[in-house]
Amino acid sequence: MNIDTGMVNAFQEGATDLDPETREMIERRKALLGPAYRLFYDKPLHLVRGEGAWLFDQEDNAYLDAYNNVTSIGHCHPKVVEAIATQAGILATNTRYIHGSILDYAERLLNTMPDEIGHMMFTCTGSDANDLAVRIAQAYTGGLGIVVTETAYHGITQSVSEFSPSLGANVDLGPHVRTVPAPDAYRQGEDMAANFAAAVEAAFADLKRHGIKPALFICDGIFASDGVFDGPRGFLKGAVDAAHAAGAVYIADEVQSGFGRTGDALWGFQRHDVVPDLVTMGKPMGNGYPVAGVAVRPELVEEFGRKARYFNTFGGNAVAIAAATAVLDVIEGEGLTENAREIGAYLQDGIRARAEAHPCIGDVRGAGLFLGVEIVSDRAAKTPDAAATSVIVNGLREERVLISACSKTHNVLKIRPPLVFTRENADQFLAAFDRVLARIK
Amino acid sequence: MNIDTGMVNAFQEGATDLDPETREMIERRKALLGPAYRLFYDKPLHLVRGEGAWLFDQEDNAYLDAYNNVTSIGHCHPKVVEAIATQAGILATNTRYIHGSILDYAERLLNTMPDEIGHMMFTCTGSDANDLAVRIAQAYTGGLGIVVTETAYHGITQSVSEFSPSLGANVDLGPHVRTVPAPDAYRQGEDMAANFAAAVEAAFADLKRHGIKPALFICDGIFASDGVFDGPRGFLKGAVDAAHAAGAVYIADEVQSGFGRTGDALWGFQRHDVVPDLVTMGKPMGNGYPVAGVAVRPELVEEFGRKARYFNTFGGNAVAIAAATAVLDVIEGEGLTENAREIGAYLQDGIRARAEAHPCIGDVRGAGLFLGVEIVSDRAAKTPDAAATSVIVNGLREERVLISACSKTHNVLKIRPPLVFTRENADQFLAAFDRVLARIK
């Protein structure tokens, strides 16, 4: 594990068990791309092709992708490929000219949101979306103070990296940022929701005590990097109320939990009976085409919009909108939110059934096709076992099944298959999981 | 003009001379996208199709595009469309897996740079590229202080907007930012280079006087928003030396001036006999596909890379690289840098020839196909004439020729045709220019 950079499942320099071609490509990468890039796995993968839930390496070995949250409707979905190819041949220009498709798409998206949310703005990445949302929130509140969970990831711009503690101890948090413990129902049980709300309240109070006016509370809809905390439903409400009471707005970061991923609705926050002030989205929005955005209550952006025009060269261009429209068509047309709920529950039940024979499985949780499996060395004490977690992640890679891990203690399996995952895919996953568990037992 | 947001050529609310369809779409845009978006022109354009140097509105009227700096090798270039369509059907995943094409492309790009620059990192937008470059520069120098020109535009992230004064007076500059006057050879003559270097030196001294350690000097290779200042060649060197003497690094922002635009070489800075510490690039890199990047001297990123891993979900994905590779193939294969030099000179001569009869043309300048034409009300006093500039820009739009304007005083025509502009296109431009000039005379 690369603790210093906070990254779980990173390839380590100096690994010996690599074939010459892989070793050579890693060296070439280092020479050309420099030292900041990281690869997954003890033995990194060289992938050349993708189709549906499958990825293929240079020898055409098939890997079951149970991790990639971008190509959420399946790698190279033909409807998205066609939409991109067609529109790229017609027009790809920017929002300083009028174009119809961006309006139709914005309208469709806004129709999936609570009525209070009325405008849609477009960026290219989730990082940019959070960066813009924070600018708007700070302009609206006149404050700077930000409260996040302690292993949150919200993005990579300078502003957003300052409130993305999962980037590791070497990336400084801003002086205007406070962290709160993750809403860990596994360890806190019924006290969790009250604890979480109290922590958010205290964090804003501490900001004020230091002369920093509150601006925003931001969390993603499934606490993706904190360890996948999905429930109980509604637990988020107290924290959001605490933020509002402090004069802050609530940004729902749906970059990972959005677009049907959590199985109940298109957006993760909808499981919690809360209405966000801003909603950010990205990753799966274009199934690989860079497109992202911010949905916002009109009153928040009124003054900002008048005073500080927003323009993003590629954000909302006609090709991005074509890709995003095709993705939404497929999610709705093929019932993928429902599939995520159904197959997610099936997969979760399957993993839970393994817990009896395998005491390392401390907890199985999640919503839809976003699952977390807590790996522990002592089930009674709930002791995180990062080493066993790494063995499972890398063991599954040897079984040609791709997942990763998360949480502050690096011991939660992060399982995030495409929304097109079938029951057969789930069975394939579980069979590989059995083989790996048998080896580490 | 929308002075409050610093935007030249913005559509103004309340314009009356609009057809009902345009009016309805503008209303719908406002309702759905909110108040932060701006349109070009007194009469905004609804564009539906593009091909080469031409854009087409919903009635299939053709507009000669002499402005769009993204689709630099022509709208919908078939080789780029094909590259995107093909790769989107094969694989679009991220840099946490090994892939060959990103390495081949990085190698090609680095071969176009000075030897000192050794690594290439990928983002989606020029804003992200500048955001990352600043993070690296600040980490390397241990300083925060930034010096920019007074009407610079470097991007839209929170961090980058703090040193993009062209966003207007309502977007605060950071307390760690100092501005210097643009290198205006038209008004300063032979003193300009020395003035510019002295201003940069003084700005860094002022930062130090306020306890702010210098981090970086950033400028684009053609001073695109400041008013298009191309020469004399080499004038940048003194300013770069002053930055280095202050302990700061020099970021060459090639988002607008890169990829052959300035006609002499692939990069704008190469006209000035300077070696940047970081080079950022974007807009035309994928001819519309969102792809951007940072080239950097290895020593700058060594510690940053070890401590603060960099990952960008879409940055450097295989489709982005395929688009960017096709663009570079076309620029090199079709000799577009040379074409920019040749047609740019022809166009500049043509405009200069009009100056005799039209005293409003105060100065004609630029490099390659990035031209600036200074519009003045008094040629001797060089008095900026923003009103006449707006009349020309909107007059050309009525003639179905697209350009825009820039500079602190909003009086410089910004003419930036695609690199595939032909002599015939230049003649079409000049004919329309004549008709507009005749009307305002």
From TrEMBL, chains A, B:
One of its GO terms (molecular function) is transaminase activity. Its cofactor is pyridoxal 5'-phosphate. Keywords: Aminotransferase, Pyridoxal phosphate, Transferase. PROSITE patterns: AA_TRANSFER_CLASS_3 (PS00600). Belongs to the class-III pyridoxal-phosphate-dependent aminotransferase family. This is Aspartate aminotransferase family protein. The lineage of its organism: Bacteria, Pseudomonadati, Pseudomonadota, Alphaproteobacteria, Rhodobacterales.
